[in-house]
Specification:
Elements lengths: L1 H83 L2 H32 L7 H32 L4 H29 L3 H24 L5 H22 L11 H37 L1 H14 L3 H6 L1 H54 L8 H26 L3 H26 L1 H29 L6 H20 L1
Helix pairs in contact: 1-5, 1-14, 2-3, 2-4, 2-6, 2-7, 3-4, 4-5, 4-6, 5-6, 7-8, 7-12, 8-10, 8-11, 10-11, 11-13, 12-13
């Protein structure tokens, strides 16, 4: 019995050994298979990364060209009206521009930017988010038309200048199409389709400048006629865009109130930031005019225009940064957002830093080149300080937008209020002894406070997200969880 038991144990040991070798062989085969899968995934990821890099580069180029087109068309329009009419018509046109700029700023802060940040929210589909934003934009356009129409009729009833009343009524007809065009731009940027925004703006610019050129050639150009040209130029391409992309919008009336509430809860802080910054700019000019006179105020404005010469192109990249950062934060959590912040910082701060050093050595010459008057001479130091103030704002802008992406606009608003109050206080204190240079230093200190406050807020929030699992990793684990676990076990 003992021998039989031993024989049985021997046979069992042999069989266990064979089984273990088979398991090891199977595990090795499984490891090789999983490694092959992982290698293929890595190759595929590398190809996707290269493709994404090329796409991102193309998006940045398109965004820069788009900003150049928009700024160039606005500049040429002002020049054409100034040369082919008179200062009165140019003044009326400038008044209308200020109204349209304010209207578009309201749309961007309360509708477009909330849509860009919240478009991936699970509360609705992508088409429903887009449809809700489109309806809000339409309501804003309708409200603007009603308000301007009532204002125009009131001006007529009060016996105001006929040209001012006519311009107000003209703006009531132009505003809806300007709003639609601006919404179309931001909708394209939100989906990283900068080339579509560029095509839209090229079409608007071509039509607008062509009509203005014809009006100038026939000596029919006026402020009112210019706004007719702008209205037609915005209407035709924008309506074509809306018709072609109509499938991307789904309007649900039962979700509209909730959509407006989300947009308002987010956008009210950005709107507050814009209002605070505008008040700071206006108070700066009024304080300078009161303390040192309108002549010095004009020199300050000229110096600021030179110091911020690159701002339209540099901040034009912000049209792309927000949707890219939203996507990165959604896919890779805080790690992806940090990468986008770093990339955007280098992309924008590097050229601005080079420009600052150019201003440092040739600020006076640049001011004389643009304004051709000796009255603007001797303010090179003020221009340099203002240029470095712009650099501080550029350095802070990536984290400013990152805070919006993380849906923490309140922190941005608090920093903005503090910086604006400090700037105005310093202008009051320094301009009496230092003149324009005091105002420049006040602007620099205010922007450094903004930059520092935004970076500190971002660092604190990023630290609180430090243990987050990247969302891309979660999704991959859902698809290949067993394979990934198998690879880790065999290794």
């Amino acid at each position: 019995m003992a021998e039989d038991t031993g024989s049985a144990e021997g046979v069992s040991g042999i069989e266990d050994g064979r089984t273990q070798r088979a398991d090891i062989a199977g595990a090795g085969e499984s490891a090789r298979t999983n490694c092959a899968i992982e290698d293929k995934a890595t190759v595929k990821s590398s190809k996707s990364s290269v493709k994404m890099l090329r796409t991102v580069s193309g998006v940045h180029v398109s965004a820069l060209f788009d900003q150049a087109v928009v700024s160039g068309a606005s500049f040429l329009t002002m020049i054409m009206i100034g040369r082919w009419t008179n200062p009165v018509e140019l003044g009326l046109y400038a008044i209308g521009v200020s109204i349209l700029v304010s209207l578009l700023a309201i749309q961007q802060t309360l509708i477009s930017q909330p849509y860009q940040v919240q478009r991936y929210s699970p509360t609705a589909t992508a088409a429903e988010h887009a449809g809700g934003a489109l309806v809000q934009s339409g309501l804003l356009a309708l409200l603007t038309t009603v308000v301007l129409t009532v204002a125009g009729l009131a001006l007529i009833a009060e016996g105001a200048r006929p040209d001012l009343a006519a311009l107000t009524l003209m703006l009531a007809g132009v505003a809806p199409f300007a709003v639609l065009r601006d919404f179309g731009r931001y909708f394209a940027f939100a989906r990283l389709h900068a080339s579509r925004a560029l095509r839209l703006d090229l079409a608007v610019a071509a039509i607008q400048l062509a009509i203005l050129g014809w009006l100038g050639w026939t000596k029919s150009l006026s402020a009112g006629a210019a706004y007719v040209a702008i209205g037609v130029a915005c209407a035709l391409p924008s309506l074509v865009w809306l018709y072609r992309d109509r499938a991307d919008f789904a309007i649900r009336t039962d979700q509209f109130r909730a959509t407006m509430k989300r947009s308002w809860n987010f956008g009210k802080w950005i709107f507050g930031v814009e209002i605070t910054r505008s008040l700071q700019n206006y108070l700066t000019l009024w304080l300078l005019a009161w303390l040192v006179g309108t002549g010095e105020t004009g020199i300050y404005a000229a110096s600021l225009s030179v110091a911020t010469l690159l701002n339209p192109l540099i901040f034009g990249l912000g049209n792309i940064f927000v949707p890219k950062a939203v996507l990165a934060f959604k896919e890779r959590s805080i790690a992806g957002l940090r990468r986008e912040v770093t990339r955007d910082l280098l992309l924008r701060a590097a050229p601005m830093a080079l420009f600052c050093f150019l201003v440092l050595y040739a600020g006076d010459e640049l001011l004389h080149l643009f304004y051709r008057s000796d009255a603007y001479g001797g303010h090179g130091q003020a221009i340099t300080v203002l240029a470095f103030a712009s650099l501080a704002l550029v350095i802070g802008s990536p984290v400013y937008m990152a805070l919006l992406v993380m849906e923490h606009p309140r922190e941005v608003f608090r920093t903005e209020v503090l910086a604006a109050a400090l700037t105005v206080t310093l202008i009051w204190s320094l301009v009496g002894s230092l003149g324009l240079l005091g105002a420049a230093y006040a602007c620099l200190v205010g922007n450094v406070v903004r930059m520092t406050g935004w970076w500190l807020a971002f660092a604190a929030l990023a630290a609180s997200h430090g243990n987050d699992v990247p969302k891309t990793g979660v999704r991959l684990a859902g698809r290949h969880g067993a394979r990934t676990a198998s690879v880790k076990a065999t290794r």
